[in-house]
Amino acid sequence: MYRKQGLLAIGGAAPESPPEAFRFDPSSRSRWIVAAADSGLYHLHRWNLTPDLIVGDFDSLDKKWLEEHFPAIPRHEYRIDKDETDTEIGLRHLREEGVSDVTLVGGGGGRLDHLMGLLALFDRREFPTRWFTDREVVRAITDSHEFAATVGEIVSFFPAGPDTCRMTSLGFRWQLDGLVWRKGDAGISNECVTERCRVEVSSGRLLMVRNLNLPRAFPWRET
Fold first, then answer.
1. What is the pLDDT of residues 168-185, one digit of tens each?
2. Would you give the distance in Å from CA 194 to the centre of its chain?
3. Predicted TM-score (pTM) of this structure
4. 92: domain range?
5. Which of 8, 94, 131, 203 could cysteine-pair with 90, CB 3.0–4.6 Å?
């Protein structure tokens, strides 16, 4: 039976310590496939987490360090001149392993074109579920999502994907009920007014962005 959850560590800034969901015990670790794309391996090493596979062109990874710390981990090395980014390659390998729920970690800071490329992944037919940078967490919502919040917490929303987004909400200063969003619309700096908030998407896809520097957002939990 395939494990249906995947963690892909990528280059760029990531949380210094792992969100609570990734502090695996032996039983929970077996439900995940953990992959590193190039220098994302440094994040996993800092978290004392061993990947199941390593992918990429390895242009940002010290080969001597790799051999010293992860000599036995399966590797899929690609040439530098390629049509996919290391992140896209990592996502493809996870999909080929049967993973349907992928969390990205890393990708914060750095070049704007890299950031835009990562955001573009959420518009595709197969898209990540979550993305952790060093400062934010992005959550893709396609149905109902309820979460623990901090009163006064700032949350922003963006439609993603090709379809019109319709949604309702509970627990925000400005509710999303009745809104019809298309690509290019945005809801910046909404505010949580209760300790439990909920968003329900009836059509389309919605991205929610939260700040990790809040006690309810980090360590991360779904509920």
1. 999 999 999 999 999 999
2. 25
3. 0.91
4. 5-134
5. 8
